[in-house]
Amino acid sequence: MSKQYRITLLPGDGIGPEIIAVAVSVLKQAGEQLNVGFTFTEALLGGAAIDATGNPLPEETLEACRNSDAVLLAAIGGYKWDNLPRHQRPETGLLGLRAGLGLFANLRPAKILPQLVDASSLKREVVEGVDMMVVRELTGGIYFGQPKGIFATETGEKRGVNTMVYSESEIDRIGRVAFEAAQKRSGKLCSVDKANVLDVSQLWRDRITLLSDEYPDVELSHLYVDNAAMQLIRAPKQFDTIVTGNLFGDILSDAAAMLTGSIGMLPSASLGASGPGLFEPVHGSAPDIAGQDKANPLAQVLSAAMMMRYGLNEPEVADRLEAAVDQVLDAGYRTGDIMSEGMKLVGCQEMGEALLQAL
Ligand code: NAD
Questions:
Q1: pLDDT by residue (tens digit) across 2-49?
Q2: Is 226 a catalytic residue?
Q3: Are residue 167 and residue 218 in the same domain, yes or no?
Q4: This prediction's pTM
Q5: Is there a single domain that holds both residue 112 and residue 82?
Q6: 254 assigned to active site
Q7: What are 278-298's pLDDT values in tens digits?
Q8: 147 preceded by a cis bond (ω within 30 of 0)
Q9: Quick one: which H or E segment has residue 316?
Q10: Are residues 227 and 119 in the same domain?
Q11: What's the pLDDT tens digit per position in 165-187?
Q12: How far is 211 from 234, CA to CA, in rounded Å?
């Protein structure tokens, strides 16, 4: 193999081990075809880690992730751990991992695959051809700003406080990720803020506008978040790449994702300034279907494709994985979550075999 990458695998809980096994097999095969090799190391995160060590993010897991070229995560969580104290919950492990790897940029594509247009709750003519990417700032803004908390006032009445704060450098670094993502796509970037009301948003708009001088090949526009929400539902095809802060991005990325109508198809990437990125499906651990060979592994496979494109800069491997997903859908293979009349219902493993065939 001319190139060799170290990948840390975090199968996590629920359907995680089933879907990550599919992603690993297609990665190996596509890699072999293109002379790209992988060394996979498995580590514990979430409920599986709590059961084994009492800690949702064991130190060895963070170390293994830091020492790899990229991290592929399936999903964490489940009923069993829902009532533990917050610091011992599976989600706390995931938040700790994102912080520990300094992942400040979250990339979430929402693409309507022609074979699945009817899975959307919107009309075919509105969503056909939708292909966008939401770039969300992940470690700043109102989720982390100080002061925060619930405080008692002098009268005894309680006040809840959160603070939306962004510094110039925080805006610039997410802005750069977004401009570069737009360059890899069709060269259109829309920045979303609330600059008509919020000072922090005015600074956001000023910095993004300034940055655009460095990216003359990217066409920049701005929208207020309320209008952006309307436009996403009214005419989603106008968007290519969207960049926004943590809170607005949290909401808009879910809205954009749901244009596609199928949670089992949605990948994501989280990137830092340097070091390994984290690649994972948007969906959770689906404990209701875990261990039954019913899970859709395609979001996990598309997350592996994002890992190759955005994490390891191996777009040819990414193209091949995406083409394989396209082919199995063309051939009519469907897991239960995306099943429709006349298609061939398969389980997770059979979908994996169909992908290998397509490759
Ligand atoms: P979920 O995404 O796990 O499931 C929602 C619904 O979608 C379920 O009916 C499930 O069966 C279905 N589904 C999800 N992924 C699927 C797939 N690949 N194939 C077929 N069907 C699929 O969300 P939830 O039920 O709200 O949460 C379950 C657990 O997952 C919770 O413990 C939650 O905290 C956790 N969770 C983890 C992540 C993550 O790891 N990043 C994200 C969201 C939720």
A1: 799 999 999 999 999 999 999 999 999 999 999 999 999 999 999 999
A2: yes
A3: yes
A4: 0.90
A5: no
A6: yes
A7: 999 999 999 999 999 999 999
A8: yes
A9: helix 315-330
A10: yes
A11: 999 999 999 999 999 999 989 99
A12: 29
Atom 43 (ligand 1): residue with closest C-alpha?
284
For residues 229 and 118, membership in a common domain is answered with: yes
The alpha carbon of 188 is separated from its chain's Cα centroid by a whole number of angstroms, namely 20
Residues 143 and 199 in one domain: yes
For helices 168-184 and 199-211, angle between their N-to-C axes, nearest 10 degrees: 50
Residues 50 and 119 in one domain: no
To the query of whether residue 319 is one of the catalytic residues in this protein, the response is: no
- The CATH number of the domain holding residue 217 is 3.40.718.10
In the chain, how many domains are there? Answer: 2
Distance 168 CA to ligand 1 centre (A): 36
> Rounded distance, CA 271 to CA 105, Å?
5
| 81, 263, 280, 294, best to mutate for ligand 1 pocket (most atoms within 8 Å of CB) | 263
% of residues, the chain, pLDDT over 90: 90
Alpha carbons 8 and 18: distance in angstroms, whole number: 16
Contact (Cβ atoms closer than 8 angstroms) between residue 68 and residue 38: no
In a domain, 267, yes or no: no
Q: Does ligand 1 have an atom closer than 6 angstroms to the CB of 283?
A: yes
What number is the average pLDDT over the span 321-338?
A: 95
For residue 219, what are the β-bridge partners?
188
Which domain does 152 fall in, by range? 107-262
Do 199 and 231 share a domain, yes or no? yes
Instruction: Please give the pLDDT value at position 218.
Output: 98
Is residue 268 a part of any domain in this protein?
no
Residue 68: inside a domain, yes or no? yes
State the distance from the centre of ligand 1 to the C-alpha of 285, rounded, in angstroms: 4
Contact between 164 and 225 (Cβ < 8 Å): no
- Secondary structure letter of residue 89 according to DSSP: S
Task: Please check whether residue 138 lies inside any domain of the structure.
Answer: yes
What sign does the CA torsion over 12, 16, 17, 22 have?
negative
Last residue of a domain, one of 232, 262, 292: 262
Look at strands 219-224 and 188-193 and give their pairing: parallel
**Residue 296 region, left (φ>0) first, then alpha (ψ -120 to 50), else beta?**
beta
Residue 1 has pLDDT above 70, yes or no: no
Same domain for 89 and 128? no
